Amino acid sequence: MPHRLKRATDVALGINIFLFVIKAIVGVLSNSIAVIGEALNSFTDVLVSIGIKVAVKMSREKPDSKHQFGHNAAQPIAAFILSVFAFVVGINIVEESIKRFIEPKEINTIPAVYVVLIVTIITKILLNRYQVGIAKMFNSPAIRAASVDSINDVLASSIALVGVVGAAFNWNYLDSIAGIMVAMFVFKSGWEVARENIDYLMGTSADGEFDKQVRKIALETNGVKGINDLRSLYVGDKFHIEIHVEVDGKLTTSASHDIGNEVRFALEKIDEVHKVFVHVDPV
């Protein structure tokens, strides 16, 4: 695993463990469902960080006898499983928030509540910026999913802060409403991660712009006269491409083979591409 990618997973894990601990303590002391919901949200972030750390490490492993095309699917599988877990946590937060809305409980708005939520907002903004940069650098769907979760946490913590401020003025129902809205952001985060990674797991094909790029590179290869078929699909978070290129039928088998290899080498330089299969058609 590249050092910077590993460091990104370690940083996220450390931050999420820290935030979970301080939110859990303050949530219990204040009895605020919004803060408790935030603690549960951070707990899911801890599990997400652990899952991403393992998945990123696994996806970088070399192919073996049982996984001859590598382990690229590890990241989207982990991200999808963790998105399902986020939905479960969100449902629990909504259930408890509704109970408290019907039967309000006393909330102790200690100063530490405000400090913890403000620290969370600032920390998650900085973490999001860092994760976005790493995700772009390594084209990592798992880190990209974590960056989406981080910015959702900023919005969720802001809403929790509003709920706590309302509770300070004895508007305890605002705390319950804030708890439900925090859960909505947990759902939103889970859905966004699931939606992106379903495409990876279902083997979705590339879009038209990507196909144009592939065709352009192939046609620029010396000896290629045309392309009569092009197919692509996600295997993990990268594409496998099957392409049929047309070459002069008078060429020797060896020369045709060399042209096919040149096409393959050129296309496999694309970051989003893992493997290319070239079929040579004499014309």
How many H/I helical runs?
A: 8
Question: What is the end-to-end distance?
Answer: 44 Å
Shape label: elongated
Strand order of the largest sheet: 1-2-3
Mean of all residue-level pLDDT scores: 85
Classify the fold: give the CATH topology of the largest domain: Alpha-lytic protease prodomain-like
Structural class: mainly alpha
Provide the CATH architecture of the largest domain.
Up-down Bundle
CATH class of the largest domain: Mainly Alpha
H-E string: HHHHHHHEEHE
CA-atom Rg in angstroms: 25 Å
Largest sheet: 3 strands, mixed
Kindly state the number of beta strands.
Answer: 3
Unreliable stretches covering 5 or more consecutive residues: none
Helix content: 55-70%
- Strand content range: 5-15%
Full CATH superfamily name of the largest domain: Cation efflux protein transmembrane domain
Number of folding domains? 2
Write the layout of secondary structure elements.
Blueprint: H1 3-30, H2 33-59, H3 74-102, H4 111-138, H5 141-168, H6 172-201, H7 208-219, E1 226-235, E2 238-247, H8 253-267, E3 273-282
Parallel strand pairs: 2-3
Antiparallel strand pairs: 1-2
Protein model, in words:
With 283 residues, the protein is mainly alpha-helical. It has two domains: 3-201, Alpha-lytic protease prodomain-like (Up-down Bundle), CATH 1.20.1510; 208-282, Cation efflux protein, cytoplasmic domain (Alpha-Beta Plaits, 2-Layer Sandwich), CATH 3.30.70.1350. It has eight helices and three strands. It has helices at 3-30, 33-59, 74-102, 111-138, 141-168, 172-201, 208-219, 253-267, and strands spanning 226-235, 238-247, 273-282. A three-stranded mixed β-sheet has the order 1-2-3. The longest helix is centred in the middle third of the chain and has 30 residues, at 172-201.
